[in-house]
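About this split. The held-out portion is used to measure sequence recovery: a designer receives only the C-alpha cells and must propose an amino acid at every position. Recovery is the fraction of positions where the proposal matches the reference. Here is one held-out target exactly as it appears in the evaluation file.
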C-alpha cells in the first residue's frame, strides 16, 4: 500500500514537471532561432544626374517589377510625339468608349460617349493618374487599345528598354507586364529631353474635371525644394513606385524608386536619394533650390507657360496648377 502511494505521487509529479520542462525547452529552441531580415523598404532604385547621365546611386536597378501607373509616362510620350509630328492636337475631341468608361482604379470620371479635348485627358493622366483617360487616349491615337500597346512596346525597344513589356496603356495589373528601374530611367530621360515642357503639367498639384478636384499623388510637389515631376504608381505586386525629378541651380536629378513598402517610405526614401544625388552631383556640397523653375523660352507643342519667378522653387511647383497651360491650335 505504501509503495502504491509513493508511485502515485511520483506519477503526479511527472505529469506536472514534464510539460513545464518541455515548455522551457521549446522556449530555449525559439530563442536560438534568429529572426529573419526585415523586408526591404524598397525593391529597386536608380538616381542619375540628368544633365550628364552619371549614375549617382543604384540598388537592384535591373530587377523585374510591375510598372503600375509609371506605364502612363510611355503613354504620354506617344501623345506628345503625335502632337509634335502633327498627327494630333490638344484641341482634338476624344470620344470616350464604353471600355474606357468601365476602366477601374483611379479615374477622372469620364462618361461613355462624351467628347473630351485631348489636352484635358493629358492633364487627367498626368495629375490624377486617370486610367479611363489613358484607355480613351490609347483608343483615339492607336485605333484600338491593342494597336496602341504595340506602339508602346515598339517605342520601348527604340528607347533601349530591353527588359520591359507593356500590356495596357495605364498600368493596371496584367500578368507579364514588367519593367526595371533602369528601363524607366531611360524612358524618363528621353521624355524630359524631348518634351521638357511636360513638367508644367506634371507639377500641377491638383486637377479639376466634372467639378471633381483630385490631388497629385506626388507628395514631393510643394514640399521638396525644386521638385516638379514626374509620376507615381502602385499595384500590390510592385509596391509604391515613383519617378521623381527636381532641379536646383542648373542641375537636374532624376530618381526612379520601385517597390517601396508604404507611401510614406516612398516619399522619405525619394527625398533622401534626391539629397544624395544633388550632393554627389555638386561635388559633395549642399545645393540650394533653384530660384525658379526653368521653362523653354518658346512654346513647345502648342503649350504656353507662365511661372512667376519671385516665388521659391518649392512654392512654384505647388502653384503651377493655377497657371493652366493654354491649348494651342495644332
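Reference sequence for scoring:
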Amino acid at each position: 500500500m505504501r509503495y502504491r502511494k509513493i508511485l502515485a505521487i511520483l506519477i503526479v509529479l511527472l505529469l506536472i514537471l514534464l510539460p513545464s520542462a518541455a515548455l522551457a525547452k521549446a522556449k530555449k529552441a525559439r530563442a536560438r532561432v534568429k529572426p529573419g531580415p526585415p523586408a526591404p523598404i524598397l525593391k529597386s532604385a536608380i538616381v542619375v544626374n540628368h544633365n550628364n547621365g552619371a549614375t549617382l546611386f543604384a540598388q537592384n536597378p535591373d530587377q523585374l517589377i510591375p510598372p503600375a501607373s509609371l506605364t502612363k509616362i510611355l503613354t504620354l510620350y506617344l501623345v506628345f510625339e503625335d502632337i509634335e509630328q502633327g498627327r494630333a492636337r490638344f484641341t482634338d475631341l476624344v470620344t470616350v468608349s464604353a471600355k474606357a468608361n468601365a476602366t477601374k482604379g483611379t479615374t477622372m470620371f469620364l462618361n461613355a460617349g462624351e467628347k473630351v479635348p485631348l489636352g484635358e485627358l493629358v492633364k487627367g493622366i498626368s495629375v490624377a493618374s486617370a486610367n479611363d483617360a489613358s484607355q480613351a487616349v490609347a483608343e483615339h491615337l492607336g485605333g484600338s487599345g491593342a494597336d496602341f500597346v504595340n506602339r508602346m512596346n515598339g517605342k520601348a525597344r527604340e528607347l533601349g528598354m530591353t527588359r520591359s513589356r507593356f500590356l495596357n496603356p495605364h498600368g493596371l495589373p496584367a500578368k507579364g507586364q514588367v519593367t526595371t528601374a533602369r528601363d524607366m530611367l531611360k524612358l524618363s530621360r528621353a521624355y524630359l529631353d524631348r518634351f521638357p515642357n511636360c513638367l508644367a503639367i506634371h507639377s500641377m498639384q491638383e486637377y479639376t474635371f466634372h467639378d471633381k478636384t483630385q490631388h497629385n499623388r506626388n507628395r514631393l510637389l510643394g514640399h521638396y525644394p525644386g521638385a516638379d515631376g514626374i509620376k507615381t504608381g502602385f499595384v500590390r505586386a510592385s509596391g509604391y513606385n515613383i519617378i521623381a525629378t527636381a532641379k536646383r541651380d542648373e542641375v537636374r536629378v532624376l530618381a526612379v524608386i520601385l517597390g517601396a513598402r508604404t507611401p510614406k517610405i516612398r516619399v522619405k526614401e525619394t527625398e533622401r536619394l534626391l539629397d544624395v544625388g544633388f550632393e554627389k552631383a555638386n561635388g559633395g556640397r549642399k545645393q540650394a533650390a533653384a530660384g525658379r523653375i526653368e521653362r523653354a523660352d518658346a512654346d513647345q507643342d502648342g503649350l504656353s507657360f507662365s511661372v512667376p519667378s519671385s516665388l521659391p522653387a518649392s512654392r512654384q511647383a505647388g502653384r503651377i496648377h493655377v497657371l493652366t497651360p493654354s491649348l494651342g491650335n495644332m
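Annotator remark: The CA atoms of residues 92 and 133 lie 14 Å apart.
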